[in-house]
Amino acid sequence: KMREEKGGKIFIKDEDVVSKKIQNLIDGGVDSFQVISDFDRTLSRASYNGEKCTTCHGILESSIVFNEETQKDLAALKKRFYAIEIDPTMTIEEKCPYMVEWWETAHKIMIKSKVKRTSIQQAVTESNVILKDNCKEMFQILNQNSVPLLIFSAGIADVLMEVLYQKSSFLPNIKVVSNFMKFDENGVLVGFEGELIHVYNKNEGALTDSAYWYFEDIKHRHNICLLGDSMGDLHMADGVPDVNTCLKIGYLNEKVEHLLPRYIDAWDIVLVDDPTMDVANVLFAAIT
Ligand code: C5P
Fold it and tell me: Is the pTM of this model over 0.90?
């Protein structure tokens, strides 16, 4: 059914493996199930009406928080480093130092520009960030069935949460692991909490104490659905002990021609340019 609906934009390397995994998730039932998802370009849309949608960092970086010159500097950074992030000819190891440089430089500029906590709300309102179609429904299905949803993002936690507040809601089953901003008593940005999370270190090494306890609390949930758009997202479940079944759904939005074979190899199901959460929702409806 999904194949018909998605019109050739759904790719599965091994139908048998995927069928078995789905059957395991259904048999395991709702009490054994958890979801781990990336945010930017996975829960949020990569583009809308031919225009690229912004990321959590982008929401701030292109907002009135920064003067024109700083916005230009940040845009130039993004142009240079995003090309590296999605470069099909480089290995993840080769990309990592560049990603650290990108995130650290952008964060330093934010701190130097004295970003205010109160600016986040306006920046989100004025941005073109959009959650994927039926993302809200996905949050609801999971929450109604008390299925934990970990949003593991290399974006900015405070911005991501504001997007959820404005575009959907922040439900009790949701836990966010991301880069949390640190503000002084006047609400001015002075740094970021803990270790930097960038797009290629989203594994157990990036988990904070609170994430450790989160996994400890749900350690009886051995079945996972992992949602992501980057090869780095494949490691988001590395911190989960005793995994029984992990079904990986990859959303491919960029350099499709070059990256598709690699994505088909690494992910159980690949969805090309999918602006919806439909495939995940069909699966979740079957499990719950
Ligand atoms: O939620 P997710 O882990 O996908 O968020 C990380 C994304 O944020 C990266 O894919 C990267 O392209 C983007 N980014 C950005 N501007 C920065 C740093 C990262 O748009 N300064």
Answer: yes
